[in-house]
Design goal:
This protein has 70 residues and is mostly beta strands. The chain has a single domain (6-65), classed as Ubiquitin-like (UB roll) (Roll), CATH 3.10.20.30. It has one helix and five strands. It has one helix at 20-26; strands spanning 6-8, 11-13, 36-40, 43-44, 60-65. The relative contact order is 0.30.
Length: 70
């Protein structure tokens, strides 16, 4: 894994230095974050802090989306 890569949902991505909000947008998820949860290192990141939370190389990020259905 490159030094500046961030592991997103198990795969390295070159997003170090970007914010959580930018990552969510890059993934094509709703800009308002509805139905989206983000955890970094197993800790949930509150939606209100996404714009100011920069991603650092080596961090492990999980981005989850809510799904409807049964």
């Amino acid at each position: 894994m490159p030094a500046e890569a961030v592991v997103v949902n198990g795969a390295p991505r070159e997003v170090a230095g970007r914010t959580v909000a930018e990552l969510v947008a890059l993934l094509g998820l709703p800009a308002d974050g509805r139905g989206v949860a983000v955890a970094i290192g197993g800790e949930v990141v509150p939606r209100g802090t996404w714009a100011g939370r920069a991603l650092a190389g080596g961090e492990h990020v999980e981005v989850l989306t809510a799904m409807q259905g049964g």
